[in-house]
Automatic annotation (TrEMBL):
Protein name: Uridine kinase
Upper lineage: Bacteria, Bacillati, Actinomycetota, Actinomycetes, Micromonosporales
Source taxon at top rank: Bacteria
EC number of the protein: 2.7.1.48
Keyword annotations: Kinase, Transferase
Organism of origin: Micromonospora jinlongensis
Top EC class, one word: transferase
GO MF annotations in UniProt: uridine kinase activity
Length: 97
């Protein structure tokens, strides 16, 4: 299992080697992601609030392009609930699950 913004980078190679059970890029409401990220970053107090808001807005605007890139690399865009359902199905069918 690989997770994170760069996980899609390995999708094609995993598929080529027969190691890919599924590849998903989370599709979440952008506003909710912005608010979650801002709340987390504000609580960590690593940067000034205005910097965090500017960065958050930039990421909010970039999110559609990031999702397009991930799907272009072979990941399927899906909501978190759908990804969890599919992974649970994979684990249920696994002999060591």
């Amino acid at each position: 299992m690989a997770e994170g913004i760069f996980a899609a980078e390995i999708v094609e190679e995993c598929r080529r080697r027969g190691l890919l059970a599924g590849a998903y890029a989370l599709r979440r409401p952008r506003g909710a992601t912005f608010l979650r990220r801002l709340a987390r970053d504000l609580s960590e107090q690593r940067k000034a609030p205005r910097v965090l808001v500017r960065r958050g807005v930039a990421l909010l605007r970039a999110e559609p392009a990031i999702l397009r890139r991930q799907t272009g690399l072979g990941a399927e865009a899906a909501r978190a609930r759908e990804v969890l359902r599919r992974v649970a199905g994979l684990l249920a069918g696994h002999p060591h699950g």
